[in-house]
């Protein structure tokens, strides 16, 4: 168990199982406290990735969403608190996964009803690895003016009323989350406020105990006194009694164990929490209160006198000059959300687009964080700009040079291919540049220029599965699928596409590895044994070589490579390149002042 402060103004958390309201409340608390960075670094939503838009004061921010705990911890190594909003069915497994991550120190489990056997395993693992579990069945905890977990302390109005936006001198620990809110308010009325407050949860086996946190508070210089709210049932309070008797707690402790009314009932009563059930005289509220009092804690005669006891203890410390005055500050106003702001006339509207590749808000535009002036001054080429805007990173020069070669080689393939033909016909119909360009681009697909992604996808799958060229080709044939990247209407085995040869020569000279390209060549050798026109075409060459670029550069994970191929990056390269030629054909037709095109009759087979 940790021996000192758990949180600070720089603490960041990972939030498991996305819940908009608790996260927004955390961010609003951050803003209220004047934090510079949001306390939620990332969200974990199993099976989902992307971003969630939330507010940090007036500013809308995008918080990354990760599909696994491991991915989130790797992406946010400084986030050391795991806030688990999973249901009781999965809370234990996800909490254990978090505890096993080296970056996680504290795990807060919100769910009620977590099986006790699972909780015991979590407690054992956490204690043996010097980690902290808060909960299960907890609302969380808060360090005033610094960090809070989920819905702790309720609404912003309650947080302001309890002065939780700035630190006080009182360490507070309770089993009950609901009663924590009540005590935050009580403590704020009669003292300078909370420094840290924890609700350990109402289950029979809490991940951390009342005494665990009191002993922590005793080691925090800013905490001058402790307030403890226990309840009948269990024997957790007795560990605090022992700590007091052994002199481990040197600061004043004001304590009350609720549930004294249980003796008024003729039969045993189960209160709201799973652990709030007396199992004998020692577990009664009266016995615990007496034991705490005998050990040296300040214990009032009733809950109604609890506030007075807290006040008197605090005032004594002030009179002894052990508590310096707290400077009051005025917290900033939290902007209202859209729905509630309509009536009051204050509105903050959400954005509708997320962009991660460029930013034009500063003195100059930036591509993936690189200022435009740096791009020009460092002599970046078109390939470098593509690497920034498409891949969000600066690729090595041989990679960007390869991209540029692909663009040059694919810019045009004469006026007779379908894309150029469509553009020419449209331009001769008097349409503008954009209409003519789009007319040609719309022909790009699996039969014309759009086979690069499919070629990459199939070659990668076959190579990664260790298929021989024979197994790959014959397997595709059985499925009724033509091998993408193989075959040409004009080129033959004895008349290879010069563009393919140029790309292969460059790759063999500059790429660290060309395993996918060599596999594509082996497939071509096999297909040429079947027909002389089944050569590796430019789509297949680019597709296989781009796989080698991505894998060989060492800058992409396997997941990123699969995503690049799936999204259509490689076909994007052909679209970009061919746009150059299609624009050229548009200008050529308009410069030549060509009339409306009409297809000749003799080139049409008229039949019934």
From TrEMBL:
Q: Does the keyword RNA-binding apply?
A: no
The subcellular location is: Cytoplasm, Cytosol
Q: Name one GO cellular component term.
A: cytosol
Tell me yes or no: is Ribonucleoprotein among this UniProt entry's keywords. no
Supply the Gene3D superfamilies for this chain: Citrate Synthase, domain 1, Cytochrome P450-Terp, domain 2, NAD(P)-binding Rossmann-like Domain, Succinyl-CoA synthetase domains
Give me the segments passing through the membrane. Answer: none
> Which family does this protein fall into?
Belongs to the succinate/malate CoA ligase alpha subunit family.
Q: What is this protein called?
A: ATP citrate synthase
EC number(s) given by UniProt: 2.3.3.8
Q: Which Pfam families match?
A: Citrate_synt (PF00285), Ligase_CoA (PF00549)
Q: Which reaction does it catalyse?
A: oxaloacetate + acetyl-CoA + ADP + phosphate = citrate + ATP + CoA
**What EC class does the entry list?**
transferase
Residue stretches in coiled coil:
none
SUPFAM superfamilies registered for this protein in UniProt: Citrate synthase, NAD(P)-binding Rossmann-fold domains
Which superkingdom, per the lineage? Answer: Eukaryota
Q: Which CDD domains match?
A: CCL_ACL-C (cd06100)
Q: Name one GO biological process term.
A: acetyl-CoA biosynthetic process
Q: Which residues form the ATP-citrate synthase/succinyl-CoA ligase C-terminal domain?
A: 173-298
Q: What is said about its interaction partners and assembly?
A: Heterooctamer of 4 alpha and 4 beta chains.
GO MF annotations, alphabetized? ATP binding; ATP citrate synthase activity; metal ion binding
Tell me the keywords, alphabetical order. Acyltransferase, ATP-binding, Cytoplasm, Lipid biosynthesis, Lipid metabolism, Magnesium, Metal-binding, Nucleotide-binding, Transferase
């Amino acid at each position: 168990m940790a021996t000192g402060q758990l949180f600070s103004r720089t603490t960041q958390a990972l939030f498991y199982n996305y819940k908009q309201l608790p996260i927004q409340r955390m961010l609003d608390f951050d803003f209220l406290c004047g934090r510079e960075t949001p306390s939620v670094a990332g969200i974990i939503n199993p099976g989902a990735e992307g971003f969630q838009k939330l507010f940090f004061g007036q500013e809308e921010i995008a918080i990354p969403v990760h599909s696994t705990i491991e991915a989130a911890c790797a992406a946010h190594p400084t986030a050391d608190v795991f806030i688990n909003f999973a249901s009781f069915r999965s809370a234990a497994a996800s909490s254990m996964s978090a505890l096993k991550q080296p970056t996680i120190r504290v795990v807060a489990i919100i769910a009620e009803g977590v099986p006790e056997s699972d909780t015991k395993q979590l407690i054992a693992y956490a204690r043996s690895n010097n980690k902290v579990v808060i909960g299960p069945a907890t609302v969380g905890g808060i360090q005033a003016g610094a960090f809070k977990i989920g819905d702790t302390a309720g609404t912003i109005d309650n947080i302001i009323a309890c002065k939780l936006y700035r630190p006080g001198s009182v360490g507070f620990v309770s089993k009950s989350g609901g009663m924590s809110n009540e005590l935050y308010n009580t403590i704020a009325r009669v003292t300078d406020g909370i420094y840290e407050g924890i609700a350990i949860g109402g289950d029979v086996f809490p991940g951390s105990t009342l005494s665990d946190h009191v002993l922590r508070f005793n080691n925090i210089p800013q905490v001058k006194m402790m307030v403890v709210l226990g309840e009948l049932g269990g024997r957790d309070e007795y560990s605090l009694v022992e700590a007091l008797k052994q002199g481990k707690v040197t600061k004043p402790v004001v304590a009350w164990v609720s549930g004294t009314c249980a003796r008024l009932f003729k039969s045993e009563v189960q209160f709201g929490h799973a652990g709030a059930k007396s199992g004998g005289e020692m577990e009664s509220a009266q016995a615990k209160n007496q034991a705490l009092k005998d050990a040296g804690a300040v214990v009032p005669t009733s809950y109604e006198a609890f506030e007075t006891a807290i006040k008197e203890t605090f005032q004594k410390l002030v009179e002894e000059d052990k508590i310096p005055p707290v400077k009051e500050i005025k917290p900033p106003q939290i902007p209202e959300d859209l729905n509630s702001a309509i009536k009051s006339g204050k509105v903050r509207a959400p954005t509708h687009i997320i962009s991660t590749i460029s930013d034009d808000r500063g003195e100059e535009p930036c591509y993936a964080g690189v200022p435009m002036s740096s791009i020009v001054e460092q002599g970046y080429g078109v390939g470098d700009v593509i690497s920034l805007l498409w891949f969000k990173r600066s690729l090595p020069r041989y990679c960007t040079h390869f991209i540029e070669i692909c663009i040059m080689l694919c810019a045009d393939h004469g006026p007779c291919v379908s894309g150029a033909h469509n553009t020419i016909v449209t331009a001769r119909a008097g349409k503008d540049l954009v209409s003519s360009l789009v007319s040609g681009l719309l022909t790009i697909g699996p039969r014309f220029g759009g086979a690069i992604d499919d070629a990459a996808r199939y070659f990668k799958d076959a190579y990664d599965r260790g298929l021989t060229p024979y197994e790959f080709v014959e397997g595709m044939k059985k499925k009724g699928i033509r091998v993408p990247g193989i075959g040409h209407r004009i080129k033959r085995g004895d008349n290879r596409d010069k563009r393919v040869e140029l790309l292969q020569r460059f790759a063999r000279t500059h790429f660290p590895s060309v395993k996918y390209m060599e596999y594509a060549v082996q497939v071509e050798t096999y297909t040429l044994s079947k027909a002389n026109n089944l050569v590796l075409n430019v789509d297949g060459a680019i597709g296989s070589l781009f796989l080698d670029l991505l894998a060989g550069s060492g800058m992409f994970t396997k997941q990123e490579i699969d995503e690049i191929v799936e999204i259509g990056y490689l076909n994007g390269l052909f679209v970009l390149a061919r746009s150059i030629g299609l624009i050229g054909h548009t200008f050529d037709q308009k410069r030549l002042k060509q009339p409306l095109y009409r297809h000749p009759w003799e080139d049409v087979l008229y039949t019934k």
